[in-house]
């Protein structure tokens, strides 16, 4: 996942689903220090699909 990955609490189902969708889309969880202009990951599950579509060239994405 990366050293900056924060594990959600076990009962936070929406956060786990958000992480699964980001991971499946090729995003990894590295430090933003090297990429200060990169758009931060979405806070909620309902934002994920639009966020992924907007960030096809995100520096933390390893596959398209």
Based on the model shown, name its key terms.
64 residues; mainly alpha; 2 helices; globular
Proportion in helices? 25-40%
Order of helices and strands: HH
Total helical elements: 2
Low-confidence stretches: none
Sheet with the most strands?
Answer: none
CA-based gyration radius: 11 Å
Give the helix/strand class.
Answer: mainly alpha
* Number of structurally distinct domains: 1
Q: What's the total number of strands?
A: 0
Distance between the termini: 17 Å
Average pLDDT taken over every residue: 91
* Shape designation: globular
Q: Beta-strand percentage?
A: under 5%
Short summary of the structure?
By secondary structure, this protein is mostly helical.
Topology:
Blueprint: H1 13-24, H2 48-54
Q: Any overview of this molecule?
A:
The chain has one domain. 30% of the residues lie in helices and 0% in strands. The chain contains 2 helices and no strands. The protein has helices at 13-24, 48-54. The chain starts with 12 loop residues before the first helix and ends in a 10-residue tail after the last helix.
């Amino acid at each position: 996942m990366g050293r900056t990955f924060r594990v959600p609490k076990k009962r936070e189902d929406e956060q786990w689903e958000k992480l699964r969708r980001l991971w499946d889309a090729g995003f990894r969880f590295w430090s933003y220090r090297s990429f200060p202009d990169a758009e931060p990951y979405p806070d909620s599950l309902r934002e994920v699909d639009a966020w992924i579509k907007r960030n096809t060239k995100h520096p933390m994405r390893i596959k398209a």
